[in-house]
Amino acid sequence: MRTSKRRKTLASSASPAAARAALPAEQWTVGGWMESLELHAPVVAALGQKAFADITRLSHDDVGALLRPHGLAGLTETVWEGICQLRQQSAATGAALNAKFVAEAGTFEMQYGGLDQFWAGLEGLVGPPRLLHGSLRRAMEAEHCDAADSDAPFTTPNGFVGATSRREWEWVVQPVAGGKYVERTDLRATQPGGARCAVPLREFEARVLPINERLKKEGHAVVVHEELVSGRLYTAAMYHKYNAVLRGCSSSRPLRELRDTLTRGNTYSTTIHAINSLVIKLSKLTSACTVWRRFTRATLPREFWEPDAHGFRGGVEYGFCSTTVEREQAEHYSRGAASTIVEMKLGMLDRGADISWLSAYPHEKEVLFPPLLGLQVCESRVSQRTLVVVCRPSLNMTALTLEQVLSKRRKMLLDMSDSIRLEVRDELLRRGSAHVGKRCMSCGVEPIVGVRYESGHDSRCLCEADYLRLPEGERAHCAAVPPWADALSEIDSRATLATVLLRDGLALGHSPDWYNDDANFSAAVSDALAIRRGLCDSPAKLELRDCTTLRELPREAGGCHAVNTLFVVNAPCLTRLSAHAFPPRLATLDLHQCRALEALPASLGQCARLATLRLKRCAALDHLPSLAACASLRTLAVTYCTRLAALPPSLGACARLASLQLTGCSSLEALPPLSRLAELAELTLSGCRSLRALPDDLGGAASLTALILRDCVRLAALPPSIGRCARLEVLDCADCAALVHLPPESVAWPFHPFPLFTSTRPCDATTTTVADFGSCTALLSLSLLSCTSLRELPSTIGGCVRLQCLNLGGCSSLLQLPESLGSCAALEDLVLHSCSALESLPDRLDGCTSLRTLGLDGCTSLRRLPDISRLKSLDQSQIPSHLLQESALESQPRQPRGAASSSLDNDDLKALRHAVNLVGTEHDCDRARMQTSHYR
After folding, report:
1. What are phi and psi of 266, to 5 degrees?
2. pLDDT band (50, 70, 90) for residue 473
3. Number of Cβ within a 10 Å radius of residue 872
4. What distance in Å separates the CA atoms of residue 594 and residue 545, rounded to the nearest whole number?
5. E runs forming strands in 92-168
């Protein structure tokens, strides 16, 4: 037996509880029972199958005469009232009335799309939403305030005259107090109190809060700010432009011309997507009801009256579809020529959005449908002069919210992560099987090492390849753990790491709109491929190179037990390493160009097998964890980590450390004690421009062979203990502009009448005893290039008997060289370019028998050379010619005693200085005067 439901219009703004109360539960009624009996059939038989015109010509007596013989005389008045109403109809059927509308002057045919447009979706019409400087709001503002049509007045069919996009944006976003905004003509007269008001946006932000709570409770996305703004704009004059853009995508030339005239090329794509997203979200809260849409002077196309090949009638609405839950509102707006009302019953899935709470005209009780709404004609009827078409709405299945639209590219990355995980696993399985040299039994080859699999009636021996293909849950059916289970575990660990890196690190590491930037999306895809290569490259190495969007190295990296080398190169967004990210066998860790990395986890200091730690251009790194437990550490290289201010004090516990390289660490101010680093061979501190001193116990590093101090501009001195570095071969202090001396420091000389003498003999009680730089007997190269504050070298430098290269170029404050330099018989290169204050060279320079290069360019204070005639290997091309001439004169024989000149000239005095080797005391000075008396 059929039942019926009580028809009642329900406003979509009603609460769910109220809606359920208004809809009675299905129950038996007399009316439904009578309807099921089809009592109209006897009446039809009595009246006969007459045409519409024949029925309307019947009189009251005719009706009674037809019904009385069938015993239906009691229905005469009821049927007569129906005939009177029928006579008021303009046509017998809806199709006929629509045909009459077509013939009327001033009407136009509405344009609807087909299934091709329906499935193409909104992006197929207007393209994707756009972001301006990463913001949807800015893009929407630009569409309304910075476009060609922003200040062009326009008129809407419902009575707005002189509206502009800029003023409408202002009315919604930041209305001016007392500002005058255009209103629909005669609305104040026809709808008292119905004029729109300039309400601050913050009021709607408060109104949406309970709505968002309902959406959250039902598991839906909430309404965002951009959707509020766009929805408010639509309810006033801007609806006309938005629909003109959408309907201008049809084949109708007038609609395209209207679009071009109104928008001047502005597609409003971001705003249209935001309105569409708002409708999709709010439609989830709309209760079941019937809604009506009205229009005049428009006719429906042929597709609404003639079934297509599949038997359907209807079309696809290009634009937004505004309806109301109050039929009176629809009838009010449908008054006029060619009046049509579309009646739609909302379904469980196909619902519009109640936007009356957001509307400029809330009294209209508007329910809005998104673009590309499918309208399937169910029936049509004529109500006096109005055509009523009953349709079934179908929401576009491709319609997406803003979050979904903006997340399309991110979803692609999520899907890619699953694919790459399978690719990584398959690639590692292929390599592993090929390496072991086993093949599946299905290939006809008996497994070399097998494992028995027992599951129900399934009993077989599995080779490696078979076992690796088993789902993880089925491996429990194996009788024993195969010897290659560790390899399988490693493969699974890498596949899991691939998923985490791609999903959490790339696809979910940024906001959805971040991926809509072409450069960002391209970088993320490149990173995904780089991760794939890095995971499949080598079983012992994990290399993540050029992962420019990677933000975290997850703990799953620590599960790769076979990895001993971890490279992370050019990951500028990497900010964190998980505390469990280090494999247990890790021996080498290289972090290059991880500019956002601020700290390393403390767990790094527990990597007992770590032998090499390289940190290059990690500009945000300001400290290192304790390395006390890194007993195997051999190399620590920290390069251009400009914020690193200190090394951990526990560094001294790394007894096997052989190379400590701190290049370009411009914030480093001090080093921890180094005396316990017995195997330290190389110490590089180039570019440590804040370093003021070296540890006093530097001499405890007995294995030190190279000390590089280039560009340590604040370093004023070297520790005296450097003399104990007996294995030191290279000392490079180039560009140490503050370096004043090398140990030992200058002795406290007493007053000398002749301060021109230099002593290499032990000092007396009036001098200060210092460390002996000459103990560095293994020194091969000493560079003091551009040490502009250096005034002298230690007098004991002659003890460096293996010294081969001494570079003093640019030492503009250097006054003289010690006489002991002449003892450096192995010296091959002596560079003194631009030593502008240098006045003389050691007289015993000819003791440097291996000297090949003597650079003296720019030594403007140097007037003469010592005797260099015995330096047979010396290349004299770099010696200024005037100095060579002076040297030639010096080498000429002297006149004997009693010759023409009896006075002591300058040349004689110079020769005397060269001949006498005296200590710097007053007694020796007196002896010098006495020995020169025979020249007078």
Report:
1. -85, 120
2. low
3. 9
4. 11
5. 108-109, 154-155, 161-163
Write down the pLDDT at residue 190. Answer: 65
Compute the distance between CA of residue 91 and CA of residue 381 in angstroms, rounded to an integer. Answer: 9
pLDDT over threshold 80, residue 883:
no
Angle between helices 906-915 and 881-890 (to 10 degrees): 80
Amino acid (one-letter) located at 686: S
Judged by DSSP in three states, 831 sits in strand
Cis peptide upstream of residue 744 (ω within 30 degrees of 0):
yes
* Alpha helices (H) along 780-921: 881-890, 906-915
> What pLDDT does 115 receive?
87
| Rounded distance between C-alpha atoms, residue 295 and residue 334, angstroms | 6
Report helix, strand and coil shares of the chain as percent, to nearest 5: 35, 15, 50
d(CA 155, CA 173): 21
Q: Which two tokens stand for residue 550?
A: 């990677």
**Digit-coded pLDDT (tens) for 899-909:** 444 444 555 54
CA 375, CA 303: separation in Å to the nearest integer?
A: 11
Cα separation, 199 vs 144, whole angstroms:
19
HEC string of 813-849 equals CCCCCCHHHHHCCCCCEEECCCCCCCCCCCCCHHHCC
Distance CA 113, CA 186 (A): 34
Instruction: For residue 58, give both structure tokens.
Output: 């019947």
Pair 607, 631: CB distance under 8 Å: no
Q: Could you tell me how far CA 521 lies from the centroid of its own chain?
A: 9
C-alpha to C-alpha distances, 608 to 634, 678, 698, nearest whole angstrom: 12, 19, 26
Contact 279, 370 (CB under 8 A): yes
Rg from Cα positions in the chain: 48
The CA distances from residue 291 to 231, 275, 324, 350, 931, in Å, are 19, 20, 5, 12, 129
- Cα–Cα dist 641/524, whole Å: 26
- pLDDT tens-digit series, residues 699-748: 889 899 999 999 999 999 999 888 889 899 999 999 999 999 888 754 33
| Cβ within 8 Å of residue 162, ≥6 positions away | 153, 155, 182
Contact 627, 603 (CB under 8 A): no
Task: Look at residue 106 and tell me whether its pLDDT is greater than 80.
Answer: no
Instruction: Check: CB of residue 16 under 8 Å from CB of residue 22.
Output: no
Q: Write the single-letter amino acid at 440.
A: C
Using the predicted structure, report yes or no on whether residue 246 has a pLDDT greater than 60. Answer: yes
How confident is the model over 178-235, as pLDDT tens digits? 788 998 886 765 666 678 888 999 999 999 999 999 999 999 999 999 999 999 999 9
To which residue do tokens 């579309």 refer?
Answer: 342
> pTM for the full model?
0.61
pLDDT over 60 (residue 5): no
Token representation of residue 229: 């703004």
Give yes or no for a contact between 636 and 613, defined as CB atoms under 8 angstroms apart: yes
Mean pLDDT (the chain, rounded)? 81
Burial of 131 (0-12, 13-18, 19+ CB in 10 A): middle
In which residue are the tokens 């400087």 written? 133
Tell the burial category of 473 from Cβ atoms under 10 Å away from its Cβ (0-12, 13-18, 19+): exposed
Cα–Cα distances (Å) from 699 to 695, 776, 782, 933, in that order, read 9, 11, 17, 49
User: What is the Cα–Cα distance from 491 to 536, expressed in whole angstroms?
Assistant: 10
* pLDDT value of residue 8: 37
Please state, in angstroms and rounded to a whole number, the distance separating the CA atoms of residues 271 and 165.
12
User: Looking at residue 66, what DSSP letter applies?
Assistant: H
d(CA 206, CA 228): 11
Place of tokens 């190295």: 553
- Give the closest residue to 613 by CA, choosing from 603, 604, 601, 602: 604
Convert the pLDDT of each residue in 352-402 to its tens digit: 999 999 999 998 899 999 999 999 999 988 887 888 999 999 998 787 888
CA dihedral 737, 738, 740, 741 (to 10 degrees): -80
